Amino acid sequence: MASQRTEPATPRRRQEARRRGQVARSPDLTQGASLLAAVAVGALALPSGFLAYAEYTRRVLSSPDPGRIAALAAEGMLAAAWLVGPVVGAALVAGLATGTAQTGGLFSGKLLEPSLDRLNPLRALERLFSLRSAVEGLKALLKVAAVAAAVWGPLRDVVSQAPPAPSPAALAGWMGATVYAVVLRGALALAVLGGLDYLYQRFEYERALRMTKQEVREELRETEGDPLVRSRQRARARELARRRMLREVARATVVVTNPVHVAVALRYAPREAPAPVVVAKGARKVAERIREEAARHRVPVVTNPPLAWALYRGVPLGRMIPPALYHAVAELLAVLYRSGQLREVPW
Fold it and tell me: pTM score > 0.70 for this model?
């Protein structure tokens, strides 16, 4: 069945999948973006935050006051919040922004609804030994290997470049720089892997949504009706429009023909329009019908191939003729007037 899914998903198929909560997303990309944002903000905010917290700790230990325990505890919580708040806030904002960018702001509770299919042991075994499970396991191994390779350099330097007898300040700075390098490289590796995983998830999502030709035909039939019925309706509408057009021939002033290929019926009534109007036109069988209607209602039929083609090709149905054709049509009506086929010439 999968080999027969050669057609891209229709908008309706995508909308239904989105309503079920099925979108292309990569948790690794969200985690990598959150960790990168936390590292970036932490590099700017943590040094001053540590100094402020160290000053608070020094004041508490240097002059403990049992009567101010509650106030000191509140001050400590505020200092801790200023220390870790920017880092946690940056991680949350980056995670929400990355998740929203991947899903388009989708929030669906369909995936949280209970499903008996999830309790089916056969389906559980099928998912466990499926190709997708194997790919997810391989991705997890690659993620661990990539992150380990990225942080191996800073960890190796911890052993090889450790100061022999550092002061507390130097030791704190050295450990901070090491932790920062390790976390930064790990975050970069996770973000890169997340970006690649998102591309893979997009590919899998598009492949899962692909449809067979039969599914496309069935959906088209459901949304727009049976193609055969729609074809008959369009043919019926064209026939009704043609009949309405042919009825207008009885009110025409003159019919200009090719004489065989095309026929154009003109009506000139100064009270209705300042110039002659094309009330009917057609080619081949329709032109023959126009000539028959003109003969039935005694409307003059004139053979003038250049004028007939100019009217047929250049003037839409129901529109007035352009000024460039005024002279040719006026001469035609004057000839009909002199021959007695018109009671009066409208010029």
Answer: no
